[in-house]
């Protein structure tokens, strides 16, 4: 039998499925024991360096994400969307009942069935005012848009402060 090779050479050979190294490990109990010891040590080191995540890692993370409050950004986006849809709906309802684009406006307004009655009621009131005082109504509407925009902006800054204060 050949003399024992260096343990490192033997391990590299075994890892690369070298026939001589594997044969020596099979036939030499000393080297086999050393190699096994080395394998265990290596396994422990890998476990220390890169611990496997627990089996329910993904589930626990998702559960924690679900418990977290929705970020202020998302709430803001939702707020802006509702504001935009509301304004658009009111305009469409107004156009549908009083404008030239009657058919188009009616179809668009029909797509927001839940809000339609509210919008028509609002646009009826708006139309009544409009017929008597067009310019003041336009100014008032512009003022309303500015106020609601400022309101959303104030809400935004309030949210940011709140988010910073909260741990
Ligand atoms: Zn040996």
Question: Describe it for me?
Answer:
- By secondary structure, the chain is mainly α.
- The protein has 2 domains: 7-49, no CATH class; 71-165.
- The protein is 83% helix and 0% strand.
- The chain has 8 helices and no strands.
- Helix 2 (19-27) crosses helix 3.
- The protein is rod-shaped and about 110 Å long.
- It starts with 6 loop residues before the first helix and ends with a helix.
- The protein binds zinc ion.
- The site of zinc ion has 5 residues, from helix 3.
Strand content: under 5%
Q: Overall mean pLDDT score?
A: 73
The residue ranges in which pLDDT falls below 50 over 5 or more consecutive positions are none
How would you describe the shape? rod-shaped
Quaternary: single chain
Spell the H/E element sequence.
Answer: HHHHHHHH
Heterogens: zinc ion
Largest sheet: none
Rg value: 37 Å
Structural class comes to mainly alpha
Relative helix content: over 70%
Distance between the termini: 70 Å
């Amino acid at each position: 039998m050949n003399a024992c090779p260096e343990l490192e050479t033997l391990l590299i050979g075994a890892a690369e499925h070298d026939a001589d190294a594997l044969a020596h490990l099979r036939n030499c109990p000393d080297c086999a024991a050393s190699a096994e010891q080395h394998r265990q040590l290596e396994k422990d080191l890998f476990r220390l360096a890169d611990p496997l995540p627990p089996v329910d890692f993904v589930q626990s993370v998702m559960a924690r994400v679900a418990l977290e409050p929705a970020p202020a950004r998302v709430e803001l986006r939702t707020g802006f969307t509702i504001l935009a849809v509301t304004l658009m709906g009111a305009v469409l309802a107004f156009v549908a009942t009083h404008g030239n684009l009657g058919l188009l406006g009616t179809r668009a307004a029909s797509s927001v069935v839940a809000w339609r009655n509210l919008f028509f009621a609002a646009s009826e009131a708006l139309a009544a005012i409009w017929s008597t005082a067009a310019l003041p109504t336009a100014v008032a509407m512009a003022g309303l848009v500015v106020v609601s925009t400022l309101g959303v902006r104030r809400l935004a800054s309030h949210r940011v402060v709140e988010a910073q204060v909260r741990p």
